[in-house]
Amino acid sequence: MTEFDPAPEPSATERRWQQGEDTFSRVYDVAMGITSPTPAAEIADIADCSPNTAKKHLDRLVDMGIVSVNRNGRPMQYERNEGYLEWQDASRIADELTVEEIIDRVGELEEERATYEDEFEATDPTAVSVYDHDSHETIHERMVAVSEWRGIVRDIRLYELARQLAENDGHLIPA
Fold first, then answer.
1. What does 85-96 look like in DSSP terms, one character per residue?
2. In a 3-state reduction of DSSP, which class is residue 70?
3. Which residues, including other chains, have CB under 8 Å from residue 133's CB and lie 6 or more apart?
4. What is the reported pTM?
5. pLDDT of 110-132, one tens digit each?
6. Max Cα separation, the chain?
């Protein structure tokens, strides 16, 4: 009788993906995780598929509006469509909350925004310099506050979009 070695440990790539996950799902997951324009070959490497397969699925995601592509450079670069993600978030909010709850939340967010505008004597968080102080602690506190302020501005935009969707049966404009 011959003795067999134990099964080899799966590689890092094999452990990265759940067993049975199809290639399109892997390419989609990678595309949603990238934060800067990325060539199809790099996406293919992370998604554990061939570059041609990744490109085919990426082009499908471009057609769906989920991913955008810069065809001018070589190699072509793909990136997630932030507008798609915002629409997806707004749709979720519209499904989960009533129009009245959305309006109330916008009111709360606008009060928070006004507090930051008063604190920094500005109406736009991008106009604030966080480095105007010598203290590292003060700089850090200002960085956190400006980051939170930017998040509030984004949330107001999302909730306003969600309100439009909720008021118009999932459409941005009345049918």
1. HHHHHHHHHHHH
2. strand
3. 139, 142
4. 0.70
5. 999 999 999 999 999 999 888 88
6. 82
